[in-house]
Design goal:
Length: 256
């Protein structure tokens, strides 16, 4: 118990130091940034997170040693890049608010990994986010998809307010579903090829929305009042947008 309390006090001290230092640290000179060095640092974080997860689950006697190594490396990483002013040039396309929130989210998950442990689902998401920092081209590709999706959704909400009041409404709904769900879903799938848990979530969400859309078509074919159809489709749109926000946040595109 005393050893545990001592470790927690040490971690609290490290986090306090992080807060003080990050408040006073001047922006790093990003002109000297080298992507390969940054990638190595990301890989080191990945390795340390994996080790911390394993030693806790195995009740390894060296758990404090591994937790300490992870804590120190995260402090160094955060001091170097946690502030949006110090965003690596290869990731400069990420909005400042999205970067700041992402760094805070990653830090909070790492803190839980050190303090209490996390489940495999959280570890997989943590690992993916760190891996994406190492491979920025994967994030940038999705950001282009998310941007196009948002532009389409925003345009649709303005120009197609009467989408359900004309004879071509069913076709327009199908176009909306394709551009707002299926196209971005395919792009997300390409970046999750090695993450079974997140792939399952993506497939489950998309299948659920497609099933809901099919039920709307069945109601329409059965002659259900158009106002009811409009309400059902509007609810489906909101659910899809909510789910898509999860992926946008995961891939550093938006804040919650």
């Amino acid at each position: 118990m005393n050893a545990s309390q001592a470790f927690l006090r040490g971690l609290a001290g490290a986090l306090f130091l992080l807060t003080i230092c990050s408040a006073n640290l001047k922006a790093c000179d990003m002109s000297a940034f080298v992507q390969s060095d940054f990638a190595e640092r990301c890989q080191l974080l990945l390795d340390l997170c994996e080790k911390a997860y394993l030693v806790r689950n195995l009740d390894h006697p060296d758990i404090k040693l591994h937790n300490g190594a992870l804590s120190r490396e995260w402090v160094r990483f955060y001091l170097a890049h946690g502030n949006h002013a110090n965003t690596p040039p290869t990731l400069a396309f990420i909005a400042s608010d999205s970067w700041s929130e992402a760094m805070n989210d990653v830090g909070q998950v790492i803190a839980r990994l050190i303090n209490t442990g996390i489940d495999k689902t959280d570890l997989n998401r943590l690992n993916l986010r760190i891996l994406l920092l190492k491979e920025p081209q994967r994030i940038e590709k999705l950001h282009q998809v998310f941007k196009s999706r948002r532009e389409f959704v925003e345009k649709s909400s303005v120009t197609d307010q009467n989408i359900l009041e004309n004879s071509d409404s069913s076709n327009k709904r199908k176009i909306w579903l394709d551009q707002a769900l299926l196209v971005p879903g395919t792009a997300i799938h390409e970046q999750l090829a090695d993450n079974a848990e997140l792939l399952h979530k993506l497939h489950t969400d998309i299948d659920s929305h497609i099933d809901a859309f099919k039920r709307i078509l069945e109601h329409e074919n059965a002659g259900t009042d158009q106002e009811v159809i409009a309400g059902l489709f509007n609810s489906l749109q909101q659910e899809i947008n909510l789910d898509m926000n999860f992926w946008e946040t995961l891939f550093f595109y938006s804040t919650r």
